[in-house]
Amino acid sequence: MKLDPVLLNMACSWAMNAYKEKNKDAIKIESKWTSTTVYIAKRKSIDVIAFRGTQQGRDWLTDAFVMPVPYAGRLCHGGFALAHKSVWKEVKKHIDPQKRTLICGHSLGGALAELSASMLNGKHDNINLITFGKPNVFFKGFKKPMKLDNQISCVQGSDMVARVPRLCYGPSKSQTMLYFSNAGPDYIDPSKDIRVADRGGLKDRITDHMMDGYKDRLKEFLREQKKENYPQKKDVSKCEEDLLISKNDLSKGELRELKRIEDEIDFPSAD
């Protein structure tokens, strides 16, 4: 599992972009019935599918319908399945099996992204799933893992959404959890004890779910990773080899955002 800084930044940028009403150079698919919204951005060698998170009243109804139903080859949250089904027929028309695909989203958007990855699991190669503050989607009893290039679930310390629903549901067995701790260092796949000890008060549980907070914590994490993995200038070429995608796959806006990160953490070039 490679925590590619360019791929993580692209996922973070598009998880935020999904909340916009318009995104230049991206296809917008929207269900008036469920209010589910997804953007598809096609780049040179990678396609990005970004689902919008909870925003409207109907989205809260989607979140609240927790009855498990069979969908995407698994037993999953009924509200998420309904929302996903309302757009999936159109979304899959734009998926190119010959290209790397990044599926991402925040909150409800992360849940819908995970359902999309489950739909494509075993049918397409080069599927990358990166989510932020994603609630639990699948029934606990279903243990068959997904086989994806990357499956990363970013969770911020006290984020209560990333811990629910609890009854009958749990995190995917095949995901790598990138955990941004409030009480100590960041962790990859932390123990349950660490997550329980890291819970804050009600205010923290709400604010830690905000996408802006995830963006800031990801930037901090990338800074520390660079220092840890590539401490010397001679390691620059090794860093470039470890990147999964090139900056050529980024839009101008994504390049500007990555440049801001590079200015702060002195990342080697990905070109």
Description of the molecule:
With 271 residues, this protein is of the alpha/beta class. It has a single domain, classed as 3-Layer(aba) Sandwich (Rossmann fold). It is 37% helix and 20% strand. The protein contains 9 helices and 12 strands. It has helices spanning 5-17, 57-64, 78-91, 108-120, 192-197, 202-207, 211-229, 236-242, 252-265; strands at residues 27-30, 37-42, 46-51, 68-71, 74-77, 100-106, 127-132, 138-139, 150-156, 169-170, 176-180, 187-188. An 8-stranded mixed sheet has the order 1-2-3-6-7-9-11-12, with helices on both faces. A two-stranded antiparallel ribbon has the order 4-5. A two-stranded antiparallel sheet has the order 8-10. Helix 4 links the parallel strand 6 and strand 7 (127-132). Helix 1 runs antiparallel to helix 7 (211-229), helix 2 (57-64) crosses helix 3 (78-91) and helix 3 packs across helix 4. The longest helix has 19 residues, at 211-229. The model is unreliable at 232-241 and 265-271 (pLDDT under 50).
